[in-house]
Amino acid sequence: MRVSADRSILFTPTTLGKVELANRVVMAPMMRCRATPDGVPSPLATEYYVQRASAGLIISEGTQPSWQGQGYPRTPGIHTPEQVQAWAKITGAVHQAGGKIAVQLMHVGRVGHRANQYKPVGHVAPSAIAAPGHIMTDTVGRQPKPVPRAATIDDIHDLTGQHRQATSNALSAGFDAVELHCANGYLSHQFLSTGTNQRTDEYGGSARNRCRFVMETVSAMIEAGGVGRIGIRISPGGNPSAIPDDNPLETYTVLLQALPQDKLAWVHIQPDPSGWDPSPLYEFVTAPLILTGGYDGDTAAEALCSTPAQAIGFGRPFISNPDLVQRLRHNHPLATSDPSTYFTPGPEGYTDYPAWSDPE
Ligand SMILES: Cc1cc2nc3c(=O)[nH]c(=O)nc-3n(C[C@H](O)[C@H](O)[C@H](O)COP(=O)(O)O)c2cc1C
User: What does the alpha-carbon distance between residue 283 and residue 256 come to, in Å, rounded to a whole number?
Assistant: First the structure.
């Protein structure tokens, strides 16, 4: 018989870098594609995040640091004054509701399509290798993912600069922290993996070289955002269909040993869909650890007891349970989210999931 861990550990406060959390239930970053075409989060986004402000920490949907960083339709940015002002309303409202919120910086690299970019500047990646498969667009239907332009050294410095500037914009918009999206096959992950990075200069080849872009970007973000305000999300594993890596254990051991973890707010690990077990890496994590992926109240509490994790991220459960923390606390049933409205415009499947109410 499986004995469940005492869930009360989930509701104890903790600190990730300089960010104090009222509980250990983190809302994982989730793209929802409800921004205006020019990447400004709408007032609906304020309502959506405020509904979920009882999370110990919200990590926002992936947010592009530049026009070039966009790959999907209607994703927000944090690089124009209008975008920054709209985010400031969101962070202010979340704080007013007693919550904490970080922005996730997501540059898609090779994953996307020009038709999805408000300014169709195209895609840049470590090497000119297309991602497999197709991508939806609002205007021209399903399209094969493009062959990206291989980044020049100037491009690489520019990409790091985009993250530096976006971090500084985020802090001025009132975010508590900034997470670098280095997972799920997007730009930073593309630099790390042997299958997507075939460069022969100092940004490719050895694991140390493949980690260089991420190291430089994290350092720039720390310079702009300060110690204890920057987190990084990784999904080690070498998923053969999306982002193959010859030796993920080596790549991520080198990365974790090289990162300035004493200056990071967190390392956030989401297992790769390939099923690769990331637990051998935990011993190299010295910053606060967040684990996300497939947790419920009991398994989250167990993970807080049996792993070094300090907080647990929940993705899909937060889509359909705005009051997830209260439901976990009172052991109320969880509503299931509807994938058909994950990325559609408007309130349906976004702000219309109700909080729990006791049956009459
Ligand atoms: C609709 C949707 C959008 C997502 N968007 C992002 C994203 O923008 N950035 C990211 O790092 N992960 C993203 N993810 C992955 C989640 O953060 C999370 O890791 C994943 O859903 C597994 O956690 P869960 O089992 O609790 O849902 C997304 C997941 C979903 C379902």
Answer: 10
Q: Is 186 a catalytic residue?
A: yes
| Residue-wise pLDDT tens digits, 263-303 | 999 999 998 888 899 999 999 999 999 999 999 999 999 99
Out of 30, 58, 187, 344, mutate this one to test ligand 1's pocket (max ligand atoms within 8 Å of CB): namely: 30
Pocket test for ligand 1, best of 27, 31, 272 (most atoms within 8 A of CB): 31
pLDDT at 30 over 70: yes
How high is the pLDDT of residue 265?
99
Ligand 1, residues at Cβ distance < 6 Å = 28-31, 61-62, 104, 106, 181, 183-184, 233, 270, 292-295, 314-317, 342
**Helix ranges (DSSP H) in the chain:** 43-51, 81-96, 153-172, 187-192, 207-210, 212-225, 248-258, 297-306, 316-320, 324-330
In this structure, are residues 345 and 34 in contact, taking their beta carbons and an 8 Å threshold?
Answer: yes
* Distance between CA atoms of residues 108 and 52, nearest Å: 26
Question: Do residues 75 and 62 touch, judged by C-beta distance below 8 A?
Answer: yes
- % of the chain exceeding 90 in pLDDT: 94
Which domains are seen in the chain, by residue range? 7-341 (3.20.20.70)
How far apart (Å, rounded) are the C-alpha atoms in residues 69 and 76?
Answer: 10
Which residue's CA is the closest to the ligand 1 atom numbered 2? 30
Using CA positions, which residue lies closest to atom 31 of ligand 1? 316
Residue 233 bridge partners (DSSP): 181, 268
**In the predicted structure, residue 337 carries a pLDDT above the cut 60:** yes
Q: In the chain, helix, strand, coil percent, each to 5?
A: 35, 15, 50
